[in-house]
Amino acid sequence: MAAGASSSHLVIGLGALLQRSLTFAPPQGFQPGAVNTATVAEQSAGGQGQELAAALASLCSDVKLVQLVGGKSGQALCDALSLRHANIELLSTWTESPTRARYMLLDQRWGERTTVLEPDSTQISGAEQASLAQQVVQSTADTELASLSIMGDLPAGLSHDIYGQLLEGVLQGSKMGDVPVMLGSVAGAAAALNTGHDSLRIAAVRLFRLYPCSDHKMDASDLLRLANIDETLACTWMEDSLRIAAARLFRLYPRLPWIAATHGMLPPVLFDRERYGEGEGKGEAAPAGAKGTRVSAFYRYHARIPDPGAAGVARLSAALLAAWASGRSVPDAFEAALVGVCGGEEGCVRCELVDCGGDDKGWDTLVGGGGGVSLGAPLLPDAEKMRPAQSSGSDDKGWDTL
């Protein structure tokens, strides 16, 4: 490593939120329609990237966070991060639009949480976007990366290829070897995977996708949407739907080797490109329009994540990156991360390799003629199409029916 260089976990999180939490203790708790007095008031950093950076900072010594912040709320967010995590270097680009606030109302009587979001008035200007890109180039020069993560929504005003631009900026000056790359954003994943990998020198980088299932986060439904699969066409069982989506993404992106998904309280799953395809050409992109190419098996992890919400998913993501960056295989790293967040007791996580056999439920409907989805079509480079749906949440359509 050159003099002055450092090994850092770099997180790009452009969807920053100032989290304001109000706790209401029993016996009154929180009563809608009444005057409520909170017993505890706290401020913290919210947003996928910010939560991941905070979780990483508790496990790793050097974390860099690229973010967009503005106004007094943005300053409060930065102060909260710096106060709790001195080892996070904030690479902040300041905007005229103030950072959006999110209010969490916790009723301790029942453990119920109510989330209230301010109206989204964020509008990033062209000058602010250019400043962001320049900041990334300058701040990552001569930096040896331990991992790279792209998390969160795409704020209004940013071009749909901003994540591709930022990746180019990072790779201009940083030292990228076989570095874990986590893509936890619909917009970020689509832009990064549609960008020429050779020009970004990402061919040697392992790509990983984690899809948490909670409000304001990527969930299993977003994975289906990223794969351009209509949920109304997908088979009812979520694992079958995810298997179809994984096969499609492996097909469209030959350099994407792993896809992981958590979906609420259901068992987390992990898909491996090595188990994609059949016979000759296994593990490679199949010809457009070809049938029968599928995921033949996948890993199912029997684990009960204590907190499937934002904070729990951030801890799981951070534990995974730390284990993965240490040289462990992705399946082992994922299992180790799950063991860590599930309490660390022996037997709290059990990994099962599920053989899909010859049963491709719903596959012909999706790839066949008569209105099925064309698997040869690339993702549409439309910024609005790549923005997460406001109500994606944790809605597993059809699950309650079963």
Automatic annotation (TrEMBL):
The keyword Transcription does not apply. Residues 378-402 are annotated as: Disordered. InterPro entries: Ribokinase-like. Residues 1-23 form the signal peptide. Keywords: Signal. PANTHER family: 1-PHOSPHOFRUCTOKINASE-RELATED, ATP-DEPENDENT 6-PHOSPHOFRUCTOKINASE ISOZYME 2. This is Uncharacterized protein. It comes from Tribonema minus.
